[in-house]
Write a structure and sequence with these properties.
heterodimer, A: 509 residues, alpha+beta, 7-stranded mixed β-sheet, 5-stranded mixed β-sheet, 35% helix, B: alpha+beta, two-stranded parallel ribbon, 2 strands, 36% strand
Chain lengths: 509, 42
């Protein structure tokens, strides 16, 4: 074995493999780099026409096709979705606490609306269908030629869509060919607009492979396309050249693979490719809804150790969760609010002296042996990390936990999930004798926030507040924030355990 | 409530009380847990 280099008493040697790592300055520089959050961007696509392909609606519509008319009549317009206050909070148009100034139901408010918001955009469904085609490397999506002409003209004006993208969009196909293709391949899914017009289809990629069926491929393509838009927005906002990104971690929950490796993964590399990150590779981090927090910690550790100068963390949407609570929304005669796909992208880099620092010296993790009670979970994720830094509960300005919009979950009896979590954190502060029991509501109001995130699984867990926290910390209006997320591992039937992870960010002094 | 020798179905929720936590409580009170399930509603 060839000697690679000598450092102190240890001799490091190259293993006998054909795949040696190139020796770089980056690897010799052993100085630890404090990781900071250099940028956070979000992306929403308003996709009422795709709601029928969400897991719950697709199953219910199969069992009772008569539901279709009721569902369609409760789908929102783009104007209503862009004016919806929780969506504006998600995209940075308003601060989450501002939601408290407006009495619910928020879906009844038709105030200011804007596609372009401080932290990202809300894209109309027509353009998102175009993006699906652009993201499609295997000609699985066919779009109608008239529709393609229209959407090409619109996308040509999008600041993050390139000429190469428009070439990939192509010319489309006559409507008759789309119908023939769906019939030939059997089981192709029609792609429709909110109004019911069929503008294309997606077909299976293999005759016998249950992991390459149109519904699975649609989920995966939507995840890729939405994450890529969030990453493009991040690169643009932070003035980062795509080729300067060496590594991408994807933490979306979609299982990309085929029959011999159902969750084979590395959607990260496909997303990086779509963003022109030619010098990057990547990998996927899976941990159900707390995947993004795990990914953030890993990315920060990679920067901290000097392996990479910066790492992009991306998370695409969860199409399966469109319309997840639609039955209760119909029962309450309210709009079907789960009509948006959400994605995020975060850039973690070496200390720039300005951006908020991520405290790797006090990560919270819910361990195997910790126990499953809420008290045990909050102890692992909140109490212990604070103790390690000598901080009190009240030293954290804001806690970002499960941030699901209660207007989505309450009609179905699922309760106000953020409020449940904030009460538990406050109860732990009470047990630590920091506050009195009577002060719990005040603690919740001051250190918590109303839920505002679309119920998009991993997207809704803590990360939606990151952009707001970075803004406030950089503006000197906030000292620190804690982000804690939980994952329902038991849903996969491999363990009865749940999971949890947390980190603290604070002002860069 | 006396839970001794009672058979219990523990239905938990991730952001509330998890099934396994309910199971531990009722077992300590002498009950037999015949089903322990936790759900996630988001």
């Amino acid at each position: 074995m060839a000697t690679l280099f000598k450092a102190g008493p240890d001799t490091f040697e190259l293993p006998k493999t054909h795949c040696y790592t190139r020796f770089t300055n980056m690897q010799t520089d052993t100085a630890l780099k404090a990781p900071v959050i250099r940028g956070v961007r979000y992306f929403l696509a308003h996709t009422p026409g795709l709601v029928q392909h969400g897991s719950k609606p697709s199953r219910d519509l199969l069992a009772d096709p008569g539901l279709a008319a009721d569902l369609t009549s409760h789908l929102r317009s783009f104007t209503d979705a862009s004016a919806y206050l929780p969506n504006r909070a998600f995209l940075g148009g308003i601060y989450p606490d501002d939601l408290l100034k407006t009495a619910r139901p928020w879906h009844g408010q038709n105030g200011e609306s804007s596609r372009w918001n401080p932290h990202g955009e809300l894209m109309p469904e027509e353009e998102f269908y175009g993006l699906l085609k652009i993201a499609d490397a295997f000609d699985l999506v066919w779009l109608d030629e008239d529709f393609t002409n229209d959407v090409a003209a619109t996308l040509a004006g999008h600041p993050l869509v390139s000429e190469d993208d428009l070439e990939r969009l192509g010319q489309g196909h006559p409507h008759s060919e789309i119908e023939e293709r769906m019939a030939e391949t059997g089981g192709g899914l029609p792609l429709q607009l909110r109004c019911g017009r069929t503008i294309g289809c997606i077909v299976r990629a293999h005759d016998e492979d249950a992991t390459l069926t149109p519904d699975v491929l649609l989920e995966n393509l939507a995840c890729k396309a939405s994450a890529a838009m969030a990453l493009r927005s991040l690169l643009s906002e932070t003035s980062t050249a795509p080729e300067d990104i060496p590594y991408v971690i994807n933490c979306g929950e979609e299982a990309v693979g085929e029959r011999y490796q159902r969750g084979g993964g590395n959607l990260a590399k496909g997303i990086a490719e779509m963003c022109g990150c030619t010098e990057a590779t990547g990998s996927d981090v899976k941990a159900f809804c707390c995947g993004p927090v795990h990914a953030m910690v890993m990315a920060a550790a990679l920067v901290n150790s000097g392996v990479y100068q910066q790492v992009a963390v991306v998370a695409g949407c969860s199409l399966a969760k469109l319309g997840m609570k639609f039955r209760s929304h119909l029962d309450n005669d309210q709009p079907v609010l789960e009509d948006v796909l959400a994605a995020t992208a975060i850039l973690i880099g070496e200390d720039d002296g300005v951006s908020p620092r991520l405290r790797l010296d006090s990560i919270g993790k819910h361990t195997v042996g910790a126990g499953s009670s809420q008290q045990a979970i909050i102890k692992c994720l909140v109490s212990e990390p604070l103790d390690r830094l000598g901080l009190r509960f009240q030293d954290v300005d804001k806690y970002a936990t499960e941030l699901h919009n209660p207007e989505v979950t309450e009609p179905g009896g699922s309760g106000d999930v953020p409020l449940l979590n904030y009460r538990m954190i406050a109860a732990m502060a009470t047990m630590a004798k920091e506050i009195e029991q009577a002060d719990i509501p005040q603690f919740v109001q001051e250190h918590g926030m109303p839920g505002f995130s679309p119920t998009q699984g991993h997207i809704a867990s803590a990360i939606p507040f990151l952009g707001h926290a970075v803004d406030r910390i950089k503006a000197g209006e906030m000292e620190r924030a804690m982000f804690l997320a939980k994952g329902s591992l038991f849903l996969g039937r491999m363990t009865q355990l749940s999971d949890g992870m947390s980190f603290i960010i604070e002002k860069n002094h | 409530m006396d839970l001794k020798n009672k058979k219990i179905i523990a239905l938990g929720e991730r952001d509330g009380v998890q099934g396994s936590a309910i199971a531990l409580c009722v077992q300590s009170a002498g009950a037999e847990v015949v089903l322990d399930v936790t759900h996630c509603f988001v």
